[in-house]
Design goal:
The chain is an alpha+beta fold and 207 residues long. The protein has six helices and five strands; from the N terminus they run ββββαβααααα.
Length: 207
């Protein structure tokens, strides 16, 4: 029985792959194989060529004839040179760099995440912002309350000494009191708004 070592195509139309098989030379191209001794994937870069060297040597020694395509593959792997006793038995096969293990990549990502400086929880940050806003609002309100108290004292003095203080000074004191009152109201509004925003920030982080 004449035996050949040939390629058997498998895979999709636009992504061909081949099995290196040993088969009766009378069988069809995709017929039954006696043995499968290798794999060839030409679409990869570099092409993937896997040959069971021990089985290839066995079949070559018992007279199996490689097709031209398989002969090229055997020369690349060095199996043909080994069979013939020629130099270059190491072959010229190019091997793709091994892909990084997913487990190793995952462990590296976990370690990197663990090494990063920890940041305070969002709720803690929101509470600190709220406390700062409330403190600022209280300080503004206290300062404006002092201004209002001073203005009211000026008005009282002006009223008590209405006959002795010129009209212009009394009018200026009244205007100062009114202005201080307006400023105090505005400060109170700002304080209320700051407190409301701080409370809303804390509640939104907690939900």
């Amino acid at each position: 029985m004449a035996v050949k070592i040939k390629l058997k195509r498998v895979g999709k139309i636009h992504a061909p792959q081949y099995r290196v098989i040993v088969a009766d030379s009378r069988t069809k191209r995709d017929g039954r194989a006696i043995e499968e001794i290798g794999l060839y994937q030409p679409m990869l870069d570099p092409s993937l060529i896997e040959i069971d060297s021990e089985r290839a040597q066995y079949w070559l020694k018992v007279g199996a004839q490689p097709t031209e395509a398989v002969l090229v593959l055997l020369k690349i792997t060095g199996d043909w040179q080994k069979f013939k006793g020629l130099p270059g038995q190491e072959g010229t096969l190019k091997v793709a760099a091994p892909k990084a293990s997913k487990v190793v990549a995952y462990e590296a990502a976990v370690k990197e995440a663990a090494d990063e400086p920890k940041t305070p929880a969002p709720r803690k940050v929101a509470e600190k912002v709220a406390d700062a806003a409330v403190a600022e609002a209280v300080a503004v309100a206290a300062a404006d309350a002092a201004v209002l108290a001073e203005a009211e004292a000026i008005v009282e003095i002006a009223e008590a000494n209405a006959g002795e203080i010129p009209a212009a000074q009394a009018e200026a004191a009244v205007e100062a009191a009114v202005e201080a009152d307006v400023v105090a109201d505005a400060a109170a509004a700002v304080a209320d708004e700051a407190v409301a925003e701080a409370v809303e920030a804390v509640e939104s982080e907690g939900s």
